[in-house]
């Protein structure tokens, strides 16, 4: 093929790929770098956030690795050492944002990869794809292809850059050897900001089939140290016109949270990636994502909704792992927002879609809580209660991680009931009695005991729960918050159900208190948000949560009264989940028009260009808000899809299709991987 034909072929290929990517349900592409919010690639352990600046990575987030944010502050998830920035020179000129053209980026949700493409003058086209390897969970992989249009000299440098908040970094380059095999390792080891953890990042280049196995086969490597916080490894190579050149950079990051010796462990991951053929390594990653996508949602007739739904599901899969016993923070692994702590966002919002579509990840989320049960029991004792009392914000320790000034940390107690609800629902879906006996019932029992001790008996024999912050955090220190009371009732009843399944004798006071906890009403029968509620603006749909998912308010007349009363009360600056609740309820009532309206309102104002990353509110700037993703997915699954969690497992009841969609297909549902279709 001559040069002109080759260049035409490349142009057609690039245009064709870009157009296809824009017009299917698996790819989201952009050629617009202004007003940019990136989409993270993550594997449940690390999150790597791309940048619109070429060959740069915005940041890396390390799951469940915390240090204090300041000497007098609370814990904060760590921003990792940046191990994935590149520099490329062609014929001595550094490639930059200013001297390229035809820049585009594509998120491939099916394979969990992120590809950037551009042209450098008239000399070369460059393409690189970023992975957070699902199979080698502490590592990333950057696959780079340079397509020269003339003979060129390329110079490539990969760097490890340590954020300034780290202490005492030591940056080295060594060539490890085992017989004829040589393994060049660029590495930085540093201490986290307040000294709690040692963090180690290692990286190396890979050249095609050579895999760097012999020193004389690989290009000469040069080590450059700007400082202990910034050093790089580089090579150069002459490339002939039309001869495609491919290389990779792989790196890993380990900490003392997970490894006694993170330094050598990070080297081992890099060596494994170095000496495993690329095709095999990436196939393992892609195959694991194929397994994840057995649980999928397919919308026919509305490509935008399809992309939005898949993007939400992609993030929940990317932020979780079935083998980790870890949970998911509100922003997942996309940022340090909310300090990376675990809230009710997991159990009430993200967990239900995962429970339906991926029980492995769902099990990790509940096991995260049972692993911290002893700390919750200790907290209950410390505050004068029985049973288990979970923190509003949780970190790796299981202790309260909310800043002391925030009243939520001291008074937002419904989190404890939310956890019980998640536990019982796991059993309903899986019917795993062994898990119920070992993890589920011990949790449900302790939480039931907590609510008995937390409730106050009134003179008429009813029970109140006093002095709480509800899900509606605009109302501090109120009595009988509707959702707190409703979730407590539900958790007590689930403890009774679990005892029956295991043929155990539960505490008789569980039923007494559950039947007696008060839900206040206005004179016309509308449910009150709390005992003294008087029509104030609300942050969350506390009352409406009694209809879904709690099913405490279940007569249509009251449900409609509560819907019409509280929708206008939702704050415009409130989080996305409130409208998701309304959407589910309207769908279950058979009102597809209002359900679809609220489905769209629950997330569309929160989308950020160019990929549609969700922020918490319409005015916030910290995506990706995994909680909002969970809410909008619940509208699809439990609203339009009609799925319900029952004693018989997952069933479908009264699904409804928005007129904007031709069909809805939900695959991989439950342990039997069932498919449900709505037309």
Question: Could you list some keywords that capture this structure?
Answer:
globular; Beta-galactosidase, Chain A, domain 5; disordered N terminus; single chain; alpha+beta; 33% helix; 16 helices; 9-stranded antiparallel sheet; 27 strands; 26% strand
Description:
Helices cover 33% and strands 26% of the residues. It is α+β, with helices and mostly antiparallel strands and 679 residues long. It has a domain of 289 residues: Distorted Sandwich (Beta-galactosidase, Chain A, domain 5). The strands form seven sheets. The chain has a nine-stranded antiparallel β-sheet with strand order 1-8-9-10-11-18-15-14-13. Strand 22 and strand 23 form a beta hairpin. Helix 4 packs across helix 16, helix 9 packs antiparallel against helix 10 and helix 15 runs antiparallel to helix 16. The longest helix is centred in the middle third of the chain and has 22 residues. It is globular and about 85 Å long.
- Evaluate the radius of gyration: 27 Å
The number of helical elements comes to: 16
Strand order of the largest sheet: 1-8-9-10-11-18-15-14-13
Number of strands: 27
- Beta-strand content estimate: 25-35%
The major sheet is characterized as: 9 strands, antiparallel
Rounded mean pLDDT score: 94
Give the helix proportion (percent range).
25-40%
In CATH, the topology of one domain is named Beta-galactosidase, Chain A, domain 5
Structural class by helix and strand composition: alpha+beta
Mind telling me the CATH superfamily name of one domain? Glycoside hydrolase, family 65, N-terminal domain
* pLDDT < 50 stretches: 1-21, 210-214
The coarse overall form would be globular
CATH top level class name of one domain? Mainly Beta
Query: Whole-Å distance between the termini?
Result: 50 Å
CATH architecture of one domain: Distorted Sandwich
